[in-house]
Specification:
The complex is a heterodimer. By secondary structure, chain A is of the alpha/beta class. Chain A contains eleven helices and 13 strands. Chain A is elongated, with a radius of gyration of 23 Å. At the A-B interface, α3, β5, α4 and α5 of A face α1 and α7 of B.
Chain lengths: 314, 554
């Protein structure tokens, strides 16, 4: 079906994005040092990392704006550098920092961006403007950062595309607009679109993403479904027991034990949960809560100092 | 409720649309023209009006053939060949020959600046702001932005050609024929387009708008110098390397030839293709010459408004200084030639009216005023009006939100603009004076040039104060106002002086109203008047800036 498929057809049929060993250098600085990532058709893929880790650089390589030094990059079955404009017909991009032409109105910019791509749904444009509460008659010089971002979002979402590349697309939006954004993305997902969402807002990615890649210092340090990644992290268990759990630290897989009277708080490796519960049971459980690891903890583990110092997640 | 249609999964791209590296160009072109719908007509009409006004001034100044014959004899002196052109049509000098031989060079500098600023604005500035990224992530070919910019330049240049041709031919002057007018207009357009193409290469090499502009401008001045050196020394192959010669050597109105018009077409196309090739090899937003890492911390002097201004300026300042000082150094040695020939020719005295000193001094007076105008262009349009750019780009806010007052902020631009302008003026006058003194063996020329430079500090400050006043009162018009002033000074003002035309029009230029030392005796009236006006304009600018809103487009 996809006209751009080449000799790599069988490898890329189901992967909308496939990146292997991607290296990008700027002079002496290595911005991407072997990035591996695959994004399957119809999925929402969260792309997490601290500032400067390489999220935007990766996305710019995917857009064919930067030329990579080595590694393999396939996007929608094509080569993002060579086939850039043909591929762009099937994708839309929203940067985190949107600059527009000061003398044009938001509506004009939306139409310019949409006409360039060619496939454009006028009714959907109107509906999106309404949902995002965007006045398209204002000159871009009068827009706030959030409103400029809405212009880019409406232009991207009004097109009929297969892939959305979103680079911290809600950085300037208020919480209300952020929830509109989440609604819209879930609708897009339901319609079968693929989304790569770079973000450092954990709640947003947890709500939207099927799979997550965490990038740090130019390489992917963790990748998988949220469930898979949670196995790698620790569940926080808070238990009140009849007899104090003063020897729980000896149970394998426990970390960071805090005991106050008869209430113990302990972080437990996923695979040792049974032993910990067994130990607590023997002490007589009065109450027990268990909090699954949040993305924040996953994230902190890879670029924070240690999960122990990151405090308890809500 | 969403009104979206059902998505047909994996809709194949319509195969009838062929995607190329210039996909989307027509839409980008419309956007570019829409954005330039005021600015570009202003440039084109302004330049065309300048050309036509120059013809008008010349026909007033040279009412009979004897005047023209005197002029023609004078024009064969090396110094005047260097300033104007290769003695085109001096056997039977007409107003038409004047246009090609003398007016063309000056006009082309302005046409080139229009093209340089235009191409940088539509290519590198778009990348600097990140708007190019938004476009290029869309269905836009790698060369569409560059292609659209080149077409905008071509449209502007051709419109200029038409206006100039029709305007000149309609003036009703015998020697200014229709054929000649068309060739003249197209020759300007061709050279202008070639500079647009050169700029297209410069924006690939340099990663920011300002250094790219500086590089293209430096190349343009080099081309001016190359033509002068070639024509003066008789090494005409050297002249032919310069777009200025391509335009002049159409011999429009004298021995009109069409074929030199082909040179900029071929060379321009090749240069655009080179730029396109280079752009395919680089990342969006980057230059081919990578940035090196810099200092971890700011020095104490950098962390002051003036220190910051200075640091952000000196790159462009070095380029401009080299260009203008080089211009002065080139002409110095030719002064000796003038002096020796002038001894046998009385007509050369006509180069400026009421010549008080020697022929060499008359020419030096002319040259130092040209140096002063270019120093003023840097000090006002580039250094001071950077304030407007920074305000719009949101670079003013972070500084003004610290303890820095508006006066101090604007003051940093005024101080750096003034020091740069005055510095360039004195350095170039020093170069001109030193080489002229060496060439003529008249050591007094050096101090005379420095004194002349001192005279032109007043019009230079006046130009900067006009920029400052507009920045405070009507910031949106500031750029236009400054360019109108300096272009007027360079055309009507300069030619009025060269021809010794009376009347009020040339005297409206601040660079014409001051004494043409050393060709005239010094007198303080005009200088004091200008300085009083300058002070008033600065006061107005600072006061109004203090009480107006900051505007920002980010």
């Amino acid at each position: 079906m996809k006209i751009l498929l080449t000799e790599h057809e069988e490898l890329t049929m189901n992967d909308v994005i496939s990146v292997a060993g991607l290296v990008k250098r700027f002079g002496n600085v290595t911005a991407l040092d072997g990035v591996d990532m695959t994004v399957g058709e119809g999925s929402v893929h969260g792309f997490l990392g601290p500032n400067g880790a390489g999220k935007s650089t990766t996305i710019r390589v995917l857009l064919g704006l930067l030329r990579h030094d080595s590694g393999q990059v396939r996007l929608l079955g094509g080569d993002p550098w060579r086939d850039a404009s043909a591929l762009h017909r099937r994708l839309a991009y929203v940067p985190g920092d949107v600059e527009l032409w000061p003398s044009l109105t938001g509506g004009q910019v939306i139409d310019i961006l949409a006409r360039l791509r060619g496939n454009f749904d006028r009714a959907r444009r109107a509906s999106l403007c309404e949902r995002f509460d965007l006045d398209p008659t204002k000159k871009c010089r009068t827009y706030s950062k959030g409103n400029r971002q809405k212009v880019a979002l409406v232009a991207a979402l009004a097109g009929d595309v297969d892939l959305l590349l979103l680079d911290e697309p809600t950085a300037g939006l208020d919480p209300l607009m952020d929830s509109v954004f989440q609604e819209v993305i879930l609708e897009e997902k339901a319609r079968g679109r693929t989304v790569l969402l770079s973000s450092h807002i954990m709640a947003q990615v947890e709500k939207l993403a099927d799979r997550v890649s965490i990038i740090r210092k130019g390489s992917i340090v963790e990748s998988g479904t949220l469930d898979e990644l949670r196995h790698l992290s620790r569940t926080t268990v808070v238990a009140s027991t009849v007899r104090p759990a003063d020897r729980i630290a000896a149970v394998p897989g426990t970390h960071n034990v805090r005991l106050v009277d008869r209430q113990v708080t302990v972080d437990v490796d996923g695979e040792h949960m049974g032993e910990v519960i067994g130990h607590l049971h023997a002490l007589g459980i009065r109450s027990l809560t268990s909090t699954p690891p949040t993305l924040e903890q996953l994230f902190m583990r890879h670029y924070g100092d240690a999960i122990e110092t990151s405090g308890q997640a809500a | 409720m969403t009104t979206a249609p059902a998505l047909t999964t994996a809709t194949p791209t319509s195969p009838r649309r062929s995607d190329s590296t210039v996909t989307g160009l027509p839409i980008l072109l419309r956007v570019a023209l829409r954005r330039d719908r005021v600015r570009l007509p202003a440039w084109v009409i302004g330049i065309a009006a300048g050309v036509i006004a120059t013809l008008g001034a010349a026909s007033g100044g040279y009412s009979n053939e004897a005047d023209l014959a005197d002029r023609a004899e004078m024009l064969q002196q090396p110094a005047l060949i260097a300033i104007s052109g290769p003695s085109i049509g001096v056997d039977n000098y007409t107003l038409g020959a004047f246009l090609t031989n003398e007016a063309m060079g000056y006009m082309l500098i302005i046409v080139a600046l229009m093209n340089i600023l235009l191409v940088v604005r539509h290519t590198r500035t778009e990348e600097d702001t990140g708007r190019a990224e938004l476009l290029r992530s869309n269905v836009v070919g790698r060369h569409s932005t560059l292609g659209a910019a080149m077409i905008v330049a071509l449209i502007a240049d051709l419109a200029l050609a038409v206006l100039v041709a029709v305007g000149l031919a309609s003036a009703g002057i015998d020697s200014v024929t229709w054929t000649g007018s068309w060739v003249y207009g197209l020759a300007m357009a061709g050279a202008g387009f070639f500079f647009a193409a050169v700029t297209a290469v410069a924006v690939q090499l340099r990663g920011q708008a300002t250094p790219a502009t500086a590089m293209a401008t430096l190349l343009m001045f080099s081309a001016y110098v190359v033509r002068a050196v070639g024509d003066v020394t008789g090494a005409y192959w050297l002249s032919w390397l310069s777009p200025f010669a391509w335009a002049q050597r159409t011999y429009a109105f004298v021995d009109t030839a069409w074929w030199p018009l082909l040179i900029p077409v071929v060379a321009g196309t090749a240069t655009v293709l080179l730029a396109a090739g280079l752009s395919s090899r680089r990342d969006l937003g980057a230059g081919l010459w990578a940035d090196r890492p810099g200092a971890t911390a700011a020095s104490r002097s950098l962390a002051t408004p003036i220190g910051l201004r200075w640091r952000l300026h000196y790159g462009g300042l070095i380029g401009w200084t080299l260009g203008i000082v080089g211009f002065g150094l080139l002409y110095g040695p030719l002064i000796g030639e003038v002096e020796s020939v002038a001894a046998n020719s009385t007509q050369i005295g006509n180069i400026v009216e009421r010549t008080a000193g020697s022929a060499a001094e008359a020419l030096l007076a002319h040259l130092v005023s040209v140096l002063a105008i270019f120093s003023a262009i840097y000090g006002s349009a580039f250094a001071l009006l950077r304030a407007r750019h920074d305000e719009l780009q949101g670079l003013a806010e972070p500084i003004l939100s610290t303890g820095v007052s508006r006066d101090r902020w604007l003051g940093s631009y005024v101080v750096v603009g003034t020091l740069s302008g005055v510095g360039i003026l004195f350095l170039s006058a020093l170069g001109l004076g030193a080489t002229a003194a060496t060439a003529t063996g008249d050591a007094t020329l050096l101090p005379k040039m420095l004194l002349a430079a001192l005279v032109y500090v007043a019009p230079l400050l006046f130009t900067i104060s006009v920029a400052a006043a507009f920045f405070g009162v009507a910031p949106a018009l500031a750029r236009l106002a400054v360019w109108v002033l300096v272009v007027y000074a360079l055309t009507v003002g300069k030619f009025g002086e060269l021809f010794g035309i009376g009347g009020w029009a040339p005297q409206l230029s601040p660079f014409t109203v001051v004494p043409r030392y050393p060709a005239e005796t010094l007198s303080g009236t005009a200088i004091i008047g200008l300085l009083v006006l300058t002070t008033g304009l600065f006061i107005v600018g600072f006061r109004r800036f203090r009480s107006r809103d900051l505007t920002t487009t980010v």
